[in-house]
Amino acid sequence: MFKRARIAAKSAARRSTFARRVLAALLAASLLPAAASSVEARDPLLAYGARIVGDDARTRIVIDFDREPRFSVHYIANPERIVVDLPATAFGFPAKDLAARGLFKDIRYGKMDEESARIVLTTAGPVKLALAKVQADETGDGHRLVLDAEMIDKKAFAELVKTQSWSDRTEAAQTTSAIPAPQKAAPGDFVIAVDAGHGGIDTGAIGVDTKTEEKQVTLAFAKALTDRLNKEPGIKAFLTREDDEFLSLSQRVLIARQNHAGLFISLHADTLKQKDIRGATVYTISDKASDKLAADLAERENLSDQIAGKETVAEPPEVADILLDLTRRETQAFSISLAESVLNSFKDQVGTINNPHRHAGFRVLQAPDVPSILLEIGFLSNADDEKLLLDEAWRGKIAGLLTDAVKRYRAAVMANGG
Q: Are 380 and 386 in contact (CB under 8 A)?
């Protein structure tokens, strides 16, 4: 059944060492962030080829690396997923070469942080890796990771999940010392957390024309907004993420709270099935969605952790109720005030959807003591919105209007003794 994989493997092995080295250099230059100069000594792995074959009984994945990769495998339930953790890796093969098929209904891969990457295999049912090994390729210059998956029953999968031992390094890194802080924040400064949605393995939406990833759009807008806010006296803004790195939803909230942020602004640029819908939307938190569009969007955004292969840890109902109650009582009014200020800034300047202030149960807005909004700047599913989202001048305009909104909000809070 895996004959095609063997043929493809032999073909890949015939690639010259020189070509691989050139590809590695080009990819390293194009895929790593600007700060990579300080990380060059670590020399990330290069995954330069991939293939997948099989059916709904057995499926094989083969990934070619420029050198031997260390890896670990873990299983997650609800839904069933297989997580393959790797050191820092640049993925340089076309996405279509590892498109989901056979036992896998979704395959994601990407950066988790500066030192690690991850492959998340969402399965169509209970599955285990009958084989997971690294072997040298025929040239002796590179290595390949071979993963053979096969069907098992639910009881056997549950036992795999129960008996494994693993710790999520991205959660372990969730310490105060690792959290970015606003530079030169003075006593009395108004501190704002600007959150670029998605990142790393979680690419977010994909542009309808250019195929630009949402995580790139949100980071560009977040940087522009942070720079603009920091030009205002008495305001200090900082980014929850400064490069293409995955942050869990709880980490984003923690970063804002531990830096004593007075506001949390999460930026997004989603997609909709209705391609004709365009314009900005501002969301605030609520335990009941204002409408189906808001409910669907919140459901998708709340899947961010699942996409990255993180275990879903359900909070006790009483804890969740307390969080929502505190949010409603202490900060919801402030969040709504900020949302209205943003929409007032956008009036006659930025197109918005009908009923542009909506609400739903966004987990990223659940900081109980930080007024928070989620701003959909536009929709990557709409060609006209996509053009604006990629336009630097438009980005600057949005940053300016949002800064005006923040200044008005701050003035109103201070006038009321806040």
A: yes
